[in-house]
Amino acid sequence: MLWTFLKFTYVGTAIRAIARDREVMPLMGVNPRRIYLVASAIGGSLAGLAACLLVVQLDVHPFIGLSFVGRSPS
Amino acid sequence: MTRIAIALFAVLAALPLIGLPDYFLHLGIATMLAGLTFTGWALMGRRAWSPSVMAPSSASRPIPWRCCGTMPGCHPGIGLPAGVALGMAAAALLAYPCFRLRVVGHYFALVTLAAGEIVRILIVALRDHTGGSLGMTPRLSPDNAFAAMQFSKHGFWWIAVMAWPSASWCGGGSTAACPPARSPRSARMRMRRPPSASA
């Protein structure tokens, strides 16, 4: 479903295009803020999906996030 | 490249059938689900040009999402999409004011880190509902073990295989493997014709 969205929809194509050339895309009539917002929402949804699947495998406590934050290259 | 990806996908799907111990399957499941978390991070960092630690940190704040599944009478089939929707809403709610105020790049990463800490403090403060620092013990509401997502390791392996490799292939790998293109035409974007010089 994600592949279909990125491949065949206007917003998905804009996301792929703005990732390749950020400076030119506003000149093509693409609103970069809206594209950033959509990409952020998709990233958050993937994180939410991973969280829902992880709670069945791991213990749930407030400090569970430290192991993931420490490994992410910021 | 696509054939190699499909072949690797088939190998991953067939691994439980060769008799791997549950311990190694558990390691693989945890690795792939962590990879799914960081795919969400990579999607934000590469597509939105906004490196963020919120994606991994929000995935490791599963208590709100788990609350959907442990509410009395709430089926995990409802809780799972609700958790995805909550994650999407939280990301959009945090990203919109930041992009409006042009808080991007590493400053956006700091904002997401602060948001994660705020959520953690709220979880500890609302100990009556979340269990506080002790965390939560998942309660299985449905009587059906299948509906409660209590599969064998094989079932969870195939769920993880469907979730992470397909998401990373669709969202990240297909672009990461491509060389950067300077022309928007390469992305098949409809371009406006520039005004003629004589006009």
Q: What descriptors fit this protein?
A:
heterodimer; A: 74 residues; 0% strand; elongated; B: 199 residues; mainly alpha; globular
Structure, explained:
The complex is a heterodimer of chains A (about 70) and B (about 200). Chain A has about 70 residues and is mostly helical. Chain A has helices at about 1-10, 10-20, 30-55, 65-70. Chain A starts with a helix and ends with a helix. Chain B has eight helices and no strands. The termini of chain B are far apart. Classes of the chains: A mainly alpha (about 70), B mainly alpha (about 200). The interface between A and B is large, with 56 and 94 residues.
Q: Biggest sheet of chain B, in brief?
A: none
Global Rg of chain B: 21 Å
Rg of chain A (C-alpha, Å): 16 Å
Task: Name the poorly predicted regions of chain A.
Answer: none
Q: Please estimate the helix content of chain B.
A: 55-70%
Distance between the termini of chain A: 28 Å
The counted number of beta strands of chain A is 0
Cα distance spanning the termini of chain B? 48 Å
N to C succession of SSEs of chain A: HHHH
The largest chain-to-chain contact, stated as pair and per-chain residue counts, equals: A-B, 56 and 94 residues
Our estimate of the beta-strand percent of chain B is: under 5%
Q: Helix/strand-derived class of chain A?
A: mainly alpha
Number of strands of chain B: 0
Which percent range fits the helix content of chain A? 55-70%
Overall, the morphology of chain B is globular
Q: What is the average per-residue confidence, as pLDDT of chain B, rounded to a whole number? A: 66
> Which range does the strand content of chain A fall in?
under 5%
Low-pLDDT regions of chain B: 48-72, 173-187, 195-199
Number of helix segments of chain A? 4
